[in-house]
Design a protein that fits this description.
five-stranded antiparallel beta sheet, Tubby-like_C, alpha+beta, two-stranded antiparallel ribbon, 7 strands, Tubby Protein, Chain A, single chain
């Protein structure tokens, strides 16, 4: 699974980084567009330039464009005793399922994000019983964003892809 969080800049996961917080609900499509392309109160730079296809400028580069946060599946590790690939859910997930996943930030080396920060699980979702799942999330995701991502996992059939 991969998620592109246009509302959260990659800089949010860097030390001291912040995720922009909307202060009002947009009433129209024009307002939504202006929220994406105009500066937030805490930042003098727009989140992204609607006319730009490449979001490659580094945060604070002065070009006024920040890359969206990319989330990807955490790579599993080989478990010698079980002879399979496993993810460590730290006891929170108890039933094996193709729906189980952990998402971490996918960042370019140019962002100077530590390896430890890149390995931190931002969202994990997994099965704990028949038709019962658990979801854990952390900053910079909101509960709404995390829940929406988890719901989207029910719309796919990994074994058929």
């Amino acid at each position: 699974m991969q998620c592109t969080m246009y509302s959260i800049p990659t800089a949010a996961i860097q030390e001291g980084g912040i995720a922009p917080t909307p202060t009002a609900f947009p009433q129209s499509l024009e307002e939504r567009h202006s929220l994406l392309s105009s500066p937030s109160p805490k930042s003098k730079e727009p989140l992204m330039d609607a006319g730009t296809s490449s979001l490659s400028a580094a945060p604070g580069s002065g070009q006024g464009i920040r890359e969206p946060l990319l989330l990807k599946n955490k790579s599993p590790r080989w478990h010698d005793q079980l002879q399979c690939w496993c993810l460590n859910f730290r006891g929170r997930v108890t039933v094996a399922s193709v729906k189980n996943f952990q998402l971490v930030a996918s960042v370019k080396p140019s962002h100077n994000v530590s390896l430890a920060e890149q390995e931190k699980v931002i969202l994990q979702f997994g099965k704990i019983g028949k038709d019962i799942f658990t979801m854990d999330y952390r900053y910079p995701l909101s509960a709404f964003q995390a829940f929406a991502i988890c719901l989207s996992s029910f719309d796919t059939k990994p074994a058929c892809e």
